[in-house]
């Protein structure tokens, strides 16, 4: 005797997904690191893995890496991309503009030194970064002509107008200003290439440093490379919702 087993429709796999970018994509600060990723410090709690786990893409590759600049993406991260790639995500540009050095200078230097270093980074972001982003975005599109590309930005680092031990209010404001300048440049270049810009400043709002409910690490002694990066909650509640809403 034959029996008939009825099953529901098969759930379609998500699009082939490739994650690119710098430490904000890799997940520095999120813990749960993939030991095979070495100095790239890729975290299994970072937003690319959260999206992968939720959507079961037909394939998944993560080539993001701590410290990456635009040319690192172009030269070292695009191998998994092809015409079948359906989704690409990335954060890139902060290291080009020297944001890590901005933070170091502002933590260790005077208000004036911090303001001057931020101004230098902003000038670079406005005058030099656009062409570097264009080259990287062109390379991504050439390798993945059919993909939806979601370019994620950077959060503000500090909640303003609250008492906070540590850096001065002047430094807080200048560091957040630098984030705004970099994000505006990235958003404009992403739009020019037909990419989606995912603005995370909203999901991090009231969860920056000094908020009392921080989604970011302040200065971390060991490992120092977690400093000023999103926590696991910053990825799950800050970055992942923005990628999910735009993918």
TrEMBL record:
InterPro entries registered for this protein in UniProt: SEST-like, SGNH_hydro, SGNH_hydro_sf
GO molecular function terms noted in the UniProt entry: triacylglycerol lipase activity
Keyword Plastid: no
Domain spans labelled SGNH hydrolase-type esterase: 19-235
Superkingdom field: Bacteria
Disulfide pattern: 40-65, 106-114, 164-210
GO biological process: triglyceride catabolic process
Active site: 23, 229
Record's signal peptide: none
Keywords, ordered alphabetically: Disulfide bond, Hydrolase
Protein name: SGNH/GDSL hydrolase family protein
Lineage: Bacteria, Bacillati, Actinomycetota, Actinomycetes, Kitasatosporales
